[in-house]
Write a structure and sequence with these properties.
Blueprint (H helix, E strand, L loop, with lengths): L2 H22 L6 H23 L2 H29 L23 H17 L12 H51 L11
Length: 198
């Protein structure tokens, strides 16, 4: 089951086939076929590890974009409380804040939704902007785009890792099956005490 043990065992099997398959008349599970399955597995393993590593940068970019969004939402709420009050009323509805709450949402999806609403609000209500505090529709739009792009990149990286992991599983099962078939074939060609089993 373990990747390292499977690869090591398959390498040993392949070495043995290189030395003895002609003399033993191995017909089905030959060196060429074992090597092909083994190489496919190791290539899939490398691709999966690369895809895992490729998630780091998009995840970091997403954290940064989310943090920037959180800061903007907090500043915007502080500014809007002056005019709209500290408690939720119908006056807050056009801001598009989720959960009818005058607070920074606790999760990223909520912050993304809040940023979408605030972008629209400041576009429609330009008089409520404050360039001095970096609270404008343009900044909200820029942050919204950055967070949207970061979410997409992180999702794509996660999907790629999932896909390569599925391929890795397929190649692992293929080599395991090849290994079992090789043992079965050799069992019909070698006696139990034949030293070539080693």
């Amino acid at each position: 089951e373990r990747y390292d043990e499977l690869v090591a065992a398959a390498e040993d099997l392949d070495d043995g086939l290189v030395q003895h398959e002609v003399a033993l008349n191995v017909a089905q599970n030959t060196h060429v076929r074992v090597r092909a399955d083994l190489d496919a597995l190791t290539a899939a393993h490398l691709a999966f590890k690369a895809a895992e590593g490729a998630q780091v940068a998009p995840a970091a970019a997403l954290r940064t974009a989310d943090s920037n969004a959180k800061g903007f939402i907090s500043r915007a709420l502080n500014l809007l409380r002056i005019s709209l009050g500290s408690q939720w009323t119908d006056a807050w509805a056009p801001t598009g804040l989720p959960d009818n709450a005058v607070s920074v949402p606790r999760n990223q999806d909520g912050r993304f939704t809040a940023l979408t609403g605030l972008k629209g609000y400041f576009t429609t209500n330009a008089a409520m902007e404050s360039a001095a505090l970096n609270i404008t529709a343009a900044i909200a739009t820029s942050l919204h785009t950055a967070l949207s792009d970061a979410r997409t990149a992180a999702s794509n990286a996660k999907a790629a890792a999932k896909s390569t992991n599925m391929t890795l599983g397929e190649k692992k099962r293929a080599l395991q099956e090849r290994y079992r078939k090789s043992i079965d074939e050799l069992d019909g060609l070698l006696s139990d005490d034949d030293p070539r089993w080693y």
